[in-house]
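Entry 14. Ran structure prediction on the chain below.
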Amino acid sequence: MMRRQALLNLLMLLLVGALTALVLWGPEPEAPVATPLLTDLQADRVRRIEITFAERSPVVLLRDGERWFIDNAQRWPADAERVQRILALTDAVSHARYPVAELDTAEVGLAPPRITLRLGDAVFEFGGQEPLNRYRYLRHGDAVHLVTDTVIHQLSDRPEDLVSHRLLPDDAKVVGLTLPGLSLQQGDGGAWRSIPTQPGRSQDSFNRFIEGWRYARALHVTPASGDRGESGDEVIVELGEPAQTVRFALINNDDDLVLERRDLGLRYNLAAGARERLLKLPAGGEPTQ
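Output, structure tokens:
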């Protein structure tokens, strides 16, 4: 019995020794293969985006600090999330790469390209799709790449398609709000004061109401018609840090809430129920002093 146990212990020692030797002197594991990227361009370095559809005027977006604007007379605010989805092209994986000279560029939809996208000085030309995996042919420099098609649907030749649907800037700090028949002003201590006084309304109800304006989004945004006969009352939003006054004209509409910024020439069409949420104070909470 003891000889059997000793033999078992010896076998265990030999096994441990063999495993140790394999770890110490065995072949080194293969290094992971680096995923080939389309470009080494970094998204946070891009300050200018230009989108050109065949035979159309280009749409240009410019970065100013942390915000993006459409480069037109009114400097329309661009949709930050959509801009980031466009800039995601800088992280695209190249599934295959071919020298331009080895391809029939007309056959793959690159002569001429369907869309040309410029990110800073880098140029990307979008062609057709290959039939097997539906990868997009994309020319960059002297090569044509096959990439997963996630960016092309974010591009448009209509500037209004790229406009932010937010009524106010992403980092807006509202310090005053004037509605038809009601004005709210924030004091130095952060408390809200209403004119006329709103019995039964608490500071919490004021804060919720203001937050609704801060994060309000339109269902769709269109260029303003310019017909001033459609408008009625005005909404004035006062912002702080930096100070700015934003004015909206209320467009006559029995059902939906439609607001127009005449300084930008844009009309914001909001969802059903927005009129109730944005033009009427909510009830609830302890009365404010």
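The helical segments are 2-25, 80-87, 203-214, 274-279. Will compare against last week's run tomorrow.
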